[in-house]
Design brief:
The chain contains 29 helices and 7 strands. With 777 residues, the protein is mainly alpha-helical. Strand 3, helix 26 and strand 4 form a beta-alpha-beta unit.
């Protein structure tokens, strides 16, 4: 029996193990320093100061920073946290509670904004935080939630670890995104084409519901657009310019919520804060091993889309999917089965449905696996089946209503991702990829993923029936299968299945590795040593082989296998040595750690090279950036003048349909006018439209396909190339066009459009004309 010595008894004082002296106050740090070391405020202040410094350096106005911080706290975090305390109380750290509240607040905000936008008063979205504050102030039984319960204490290093992750996100965002995505025009015009496309979605959701494609007026928007509803709500509330909001501010809190809640999930599964830290680290570090000597396209297979700014829909949905899994586990484990828990589950999956429908088949597969595992153990799987029915209903609604039944460029084509990747690595056209090379690439994919997640195989062998293990195994099978069996009209969109499942797979792999290490008595030093050995192997093989991609002309494709063959030989020799020397099963845990160490190290040297490239582009990306000299001067000023002087329902026509500098052949991924003006354009670019996806055929390049309605395009262009009052009247009366936006570099000298008023505004190379009203009859 252990007794506690009376306070102040020198005979029973705790001894200092090193010197055998009584531990007295003189050996302790001053109380002020101890409180600072334990407090989460110093790391929080450090991160906030660093974020402000980085954002200010890259052009974010201080007024926008203050407005966004106030919105985040007052309109999302506080009301969301109050609701979480009332509906889903639990033993959490204070930061986990706030992160959960932010996730719930974001989800409610989306639905509230849709109702407000449909009513024609977008600022009515403020009604939900106002109603929440009123309820928690006026209803006596809710008032206690302002104080909350006593939070769970975290170790003193935990806040500093999270601060380190936040600093990494800021640094990588600055290196990979902020420096290549300036806010000032014309430099902003050199951004990747995906960014103005997303910005146009935000502008469309600011002014219209149901939304249409702003780049081709009249086409319905069959896309995952709930994330843009959140951004539109934030824009209305804060008054922040949409470009600043999307390209500087919005993703940081989303990633923060994701990290904190992923850590909460990792702590729940592994049982420790140390395990949670490993889960977060694995999620950001795990990638498909790339052992080539330069940056390359394999980096798209990282566990979290990096940087998160390039995929706002994925980032937003990933932030919501982690709390969905936490609530789902509460239901499946029987911890909470009340109506409030089910209401939270419904809220989260409904918003996920519209944010990124890719998560729904993953959830269905996971729930089917849980139900099968519970049935095999003769446990009634009613909750899993009920959640499965909910996810299935959401999937049907998403596919046939939100997405209009469109494929959106996905179809069954086994190993299409392997073919595209191998063609880029070998520097050959896709039709020239041989069957042997294709199979070799698929094997590398499978072995590369297994290298990072091999810890989960041990866990699956031992405890396949736990809800999290079964759920994650189901999602993983579907994610890997979709990545290998589906094709895409664009680059590698089937890889999003794997990106979406990667965080859960990383948590499962860490848990499995920790279980294996504990069972075989492997200490932390041995684990770190084996992981470090894997890192050394990957870096040494990369440097020794020196294979650069794409391969020089005439180099056989087998050269791509050289670094992987060397790594396989090293692992085989290590396995043979461990087998010969083993006296306990412990060496197998060392071998697993060695293989895991190869995975992240195989990708991150290439990632570091990408961060320091002047253009921030991966070495295998074949979509050339727009040259600064090709960007028209004055487009941003003209578009914003139009936004201030036109009605939201006005339709524009333009004489620019191709990306600047990519007119021969015409690359139709041009979206800047709709993005900056926040108005629908009769025909701007049409590459990423459901009609264009549906008409694509194998062998075609999506962005080079012609427009499917030649009459509309001809009427549009006639107003610029053969101007006449009749051409202008055709646009006005037949297509509802009210404004012409002309890039005067593409007009014949001295021939402005005829039959129009103006130009009403001219800036640089851009002139804006207003069509006259139709004559009275």
């Amino acid at each position: 029996m252990t007794t506690t010595p009376p306070a102040g008894d020198p005979a029973l004082a705790v001894r200092d193990g090193a010197a055998g002296r009584p531990a007295g106050p003189r050996h302790r740090a001053p109380r002020g320093l101890r409180s600072v070391a334990r407090s989460p405020w110093p790391p929080a202040v450090l991160v906030a100061a660093l974020a402000v410094a980085v954002l200010r350096h890259y052009g974010t106005p201080i007024r926008d920073l203050a407005a966004f911080a106030g919105y985040l706290a007052g309109c999302v975090a506080v009301p969301g946290t109050l609701l979480v305390r009332a509906l889903h109380p639990g033993r959490r750290t204070r930061l986990e509670e706030v992160a959960f509240g932010l996730a719930v607040g974001y989800a409610i905000e989306v639905l509230a904004y849709l109702a407000a936008r449909a009513a024609g008063a977008p600022l009515l979205v403020l009604g939900w935080p106002a109603a929440t504050y009123a309820a928690f102030l006026l209803i006596p039984r809710l008032r206690r939630h302002w104080r909350g319960t006593r939070p769970q204490r975290a170790p003193r290093w935990w806040a500093w670890f999270l601060a380190l992750v936040a600093c990494y996100v800021l640094a990588s965002s600055a290196a990979e995104f902020f420096r290549t995505a300036p806010l000032r025009w014309p430099a902003a015009g050199t951004m990747h084409f995906d960014l103005p496309y997303a910005l146009g979605m935000l502008g469309e959701l600011r002014h219209h519901l149901p939304p249409q494609l702003p780049i081709v007026a009249g086409e319905p928007l069959y896309y995952h657009w709930f994330a843009f509803a959140h951004l539109a709500a934030a824009s209305w509330i804060t008054g922040v310019e949409p470009m600043v909001l999307m390209f500087r501010l919005a993703a940081l809190p989303l990633v923060g919520v994701f990290v904190v809640l992923l850590a909460a999930l990792g702590r729940r599964i592994t049982g420790s804060f140390g395990g949670a830290a490993l889960c977060v680290t694995a999620t950001f570090a795990m990638a498909l091993p790339s052992l080539y000597a330069n940056a390359n396209g394999l980096l798209i297979w990282t566990g979290v889309q990096q940087p998160p700014w390039r995929g706002p829909t994925t980032t937003f949905a990933m932030m919501l999917f982690v709390p969905f899994v936490l609530v789902l586990l509460d239901l499946l484990d029987g911890r909470r089965t009340g109506r409030a828990t089910w209401a939270l589950l419904v809220l989260l999956i409904v918003v996920i449905m519209g944010a990124k429908a890719v998560y729904l088949p993953l959830a269905l597969a996971g729930l089917a696996a849980v139900a099968a595992a519970q049935a095999a153990r003769r446990r009634p799987p009613w909750r899993a089946l009920a959640a499965f029915a909910l996810a299935a209903a959401c999937l049907c609604y998403a596919q046939f209503v939100l997405l209009g039944g469109a494929r959106l460029g996905l179809f069954v084509q086994p190993l299409a991702a392997a073919r595209k990747t191998w063609a880029a690595l070998a520097g050959v056209p896709e039709p020239e990829v041989t069957t042997a090379a294709l199979l070799a690439c698929a094997v590398l994919f499978l072995l590369g993923w297994a290298a990072g997640w091999c810890g989960s195989l041990w866990l699956l062998r031992g405890t396949p029936g736990t809800p999290f293990t079964a759920f994650t195994a189901g999602t993983g099978v579907v994610a890997v299968g979709a990545a290998l069996l589906l094709g895409s009209t664009t680059t590698l969109n089937q890889g999003y299945f794997l990106i979406c499942a990667a965080p859960l797979l990383s948590v499962l792999a860490v848990h499995g590795f920790l279980v294996l290490a504990r069972r075989q008595g492997l200490g932390a030093k041995a684990c770190c040593g084996a992981l470090a050995a894997g890192v050394v192997v990957a870096v040494a093989v990369r440097a020794a082989c020196g294979v650069r991609v794409p391969l020089p002309p005439g180099t056989p494709w087998r050269a791509l296998l050289l670094p992987y063959a060397v790594v396989a030989a090293v692992v085989a020799l290590a396995a043979a040595g461990l087998w010969a020397a083993r006296r306990r099963p412990r060496p197998w845990a060392l071998l697993v750690a060695l293989v895991v160490g190869v995975g992240p190290a195989g990708a991150w040297p290439a990632r570091a090279m990408l961060m320091v490239r002047p253009d921030g582009r991966a070495g295998l990306e074949n979509d050339q950036r727009v040259a600064p000299a090709d960007v028209p001067r004055g487009l941003a000023a003209a578009a914003r003048w139009l936004r201030d002087h036109s009605a939201p329902g006005d339709v524009l026509a333009t004489n620019v349909h191709c990306r600047w500098g990519h007119e021969l052949p015409c690359d139709t991924r041009q979206y800047w006018l709709a993005a900056l003006a926040e108005r629908r354009v009769l025909v701007e670019g049409w590459a990423f439209t459901p009609v264009n996806h549906a008409r694509w055929r194998p062998g075609e390049i999506l962005q080079l396909r012609p427009f499917w309605d030649p009459a509309r395009l001809a009427a549009n262009d006639a107003a610029f190339t053969a101007p006449s009052p009749a051409a202008v009247a055709r646009l006005r009366d037949g297509y509802g066009v009210r404004w012409l936006v002309a890039d005067e570099r593409r007009l014949a000298p001295g021939t402005p459009p005829a039959g129009v008023t103006g130009p009403l505004f001219r800036a640089g190379d851009i002139a804006v004309y207003r069509l006259p009203a139709a004559p009275a009859r």
